[in-house]
Design goal:
Blueprint lengths: L3 E8 L7 E8 L6 H11 L19 E4 L2 E4 L33 E5 L6 E3 L2 E2 L2 H9 L19 H11 L11 H5 L6 H11 L6 H11 L13 H5 L6 H12 L4
Parallel strand pairs: 1-5
Antiparallel strand pairs: 1-2, 3-4, 3-5, 6-7
Amino acid sequence: MTKNVKLLVYRNPGNGDIRYERYELPISKGMSVLEALFYIQDHFDSTLAFRYACRGAICGSCGMTIDKVPMLACRVQVSTLKTAKKSINIPEFEFGDHSYWDKENEILIEPLPNMKVLKDLVVDMEPFWKFYREIEPYLVREWNDVAPESKQSPTQMKVIERLVYCILCGLCWACPVSNKNPSYLGPAQLAKADRFINDSRITKEKQQKVVSRIIKEDGVPACEKFFICNRVCPKNIMPGTAIKDIRDKWIKNE
């Protein structure tokens, strides 16, 4: 006998007309929340909007709030979601009236928090990318750069390895500081900055330029050490720990 799953999905056409819609669908083996959303599109409502790309937890496109926790939809299994261990001490995000949500038997699907909703589960990521561009996340080299200048030893790589794996999914913007301070650079951006200022291939000039940006009031000093970013990060990047690293190395007498 086929087992069904019930989803309560946030719907918003972009004009502020917020509602929640229920869908019941059969569970297939290994079905992810992303696949469940595809099923809704194919069988119930083709207008349901959400982002996705790789379907393998690499691109970061399918970030959304699932049962009140920011997650990657492609990484969450429908059959084990209710019993799986979830991040703790996450803020209560409010998107609309979901008071009739059956927590035990329904999966609640909502957009990422602290971002403007464009439609349904699609949020405006432009502020995220704007702040990302501000920390200049790239190496600056002359056109005729040749080895050994571009080489890096395994030991040097180890220093930044964890930070390299950030997929820029935006889940860390669940941080309460991002909610109340629209100028805050954000955990992902500061973690990427830490990755580049610790890269052995970076020039001193570029390093100082990045540092001068992230130590401004809307950068590292704005972090209030909630460490929500560490709890929700799907790749264990530990952005909060990276911010602490910057604070310890570059901000004196805080």
